[in-house]
Amino acid sequence: MKKTDKKVSSSRQLAWRVRLTKLAATGVVLALLPTGPAVADGGGPAPTPGPPDRRPPASTLAWLAFPGGVFSVDSATRTVRYRACDGDTGRIADPDMRVRGRVASGEVTVDGTTYAYDVPLVGRSRGIVEVTRPGAGPDGLVGEVVTEPQPPSDPVAGRRLLPLTGQLQQVVDASTANPAGVTVRDLSGRYGDQQIAVNGTFRPKAASVIKLWILVELLRRVDCGQVSLDDGVLVTPAQVVDGTGELQHETFPQVVTLYRLAEYMIKYSDNTAANVLIDYFGGFAPVNDLIDSMNQRETILARKMLDTEAAMRGEENYTSPDDVVALLGAVWDAQILTPAARDLMIAFMAEQTLNTKIPAALPAGVPVAHKTGDLPDASHDVGYYLLPGSQVAVAFLTSGAMAGGDETVRRLARTVYDYLVAPPPGATEQ
Description:
By secondary structure, the protein is α+β, with helices and mostly antiparallel strands. 30% of the residues lie in helices and 24% in strands. It contains 12 helices and 18 strands. The strands form 3 sheets. Strands 1, 2, 3, 4, 5, 6, 7, 8, 9, 10 and 11 form an 11-stranded antiparallel β-sheet that branches. Helix 3 (163-174) runs antiparallel to helix 12 and helix 5 crosses helix 6 (271-281). It is globular, with a radius of gyration of 22 Å. The protein starts with a strand and ends in a 9-residue tail after the last helix.
């Protein structure tokens, strides 16, 4: 694909701003657009001292979620990416990107299609990217901005979750043989959609947790109408691997539907199903494109399941608690998948058959939907607590001997549950 960065002319820039103003006047755009004199980051006079800034923090990374796709911005490297049902620009440079008033804006042209954007660098705000294709009028795509982490929707309610951080820190500190990281995000609103973490950027081997991104990429294509879960894939004996899973016990070659591959990959953590889907995508690139479009910098798919030769070459899959919860949160909020695809993904996770960690740590019958990850030197469990009125997304990741990691995950899982059902004095609702 030929890619060309195009500098915004004064006339085009003015026209773009006029269109934004018209949209804003009709209530369509609620972005944090600059008002008054704005100075690019790194220049201009020093700000006048004033009261502490209580606004949500800005980020260098943000992506705009709109129906059918995303528009990703990295303001530190001045790069953007459009990835939607109708195409993918890849990560491209916009050296003329303007970062003013906590908003990144600019215009790039790729293969004749122009992308003009105003994307706030603050989560839960609104932004727009205007796509102008050859021979067609502009198409304004408006959506919510996503950052990692998303700021709380209610900071006052969010403070009630903060004491949990100290309790989780105690568990992590006690797990000296198994370094650990944990991230928790409120999804119910009870705690103002607050996110907390201990070692949230901890980056162990991903193990089978990486299968969640494989599933999301497949379901994204289903949402786009590019594939159907009823489609069949020919699975050959050469693709069959051992470890976890059920497909290895069947006779091949045979045609297996995408639905069964997706279900087995999560329900049984089926390694063969995961590898077949990677082959179906044509390799690792599409899953890593998904990861990049969501600005998840600690996650990568670099080898297939049980590919020990690749692992010995240093080709490894990695992730972090923050990246896992960013994915789970975007799925829950229907920002990366449609509600129907989200519900199917959570249903697969609720059928998980490997239940020695999160479910084993909680009282019988507590509703959870989760995905485990196990290697000799890593133990993880991530997913959703589906407690009515107290739903949360969680990621418990560890490294070190698996047995010790399993116990650390169980202790972390129980600590979160106990807090949700009986928060300490001073953390309860007023």
